[in-house]
Specification:
This protein is mainly α. 64% of the residues lie in helices and 0% in strands.
């Protein structure tokens, strides 16, 4: 193949990418998919099988309608639990979240602590140096 043929193939692969690569192209695609905007009014419709092409299975058509309420949430909101039960639930949730945390190893902790101590020492030295320089400058300007 010639060099020109390879360049043409490269251009085709870039243009055949279905996802837009600029913000304007993404807005245009969203407007066409949702059925609003300039492109949708001009008669363009959303591609079949893409988001916004129609109501999902079991969903109501249109975004202007509120989301249907779930069956269990209304009962939980109206039912008031005791203070003790709420504290226990809170502690269980905290414990569950703490189990998800990725804790650093001992080696990582030593490294992080060393970095913090070196940085703090550097900042103390910098502030001390600047304080000394400004003090000498004030002494020169105003005299002692």
């Amino acid at each position: 193949m010639s060099e020109d043929g390879e360049k043409d193939q490269g251009k085709e692969s870039k243009n055949s990418d279905p996802r837009p690569n600029t913000a304007a192209a993404r807005r245009k695609r969203r407007a066409a998919a949702s059925g609003t905007g300039k492109d949708a009014k001009a008669g363009k419709s959303a591609p079949q099988g893409k988001a916004g092409s129609g109501p999902a299975k079991g969903a109501t058509a249109g975004k202007d309608r509120p989301t249907p309420k779930r069956s269990g949430t209304t009962q939980e909101k109206t039912e008031k639990h005791s203070l003790f039960a709420r504290i226990v639930r809170f502690l269980r949730e905290v414990w569950g979240e703490l189990r998800k945390v990725i804790w650093p190893t001992r080696k990582q902790m030593i490294t992080y602590t060393g970095v913090v101590l070196v940085f703090v020492a550097f900042m103390i030295a910098l502030v001390y140096l600047l304080d000394f320089v400004f003090l000498e400058g004030v002494d020169v300007v105003f005299g002692n």
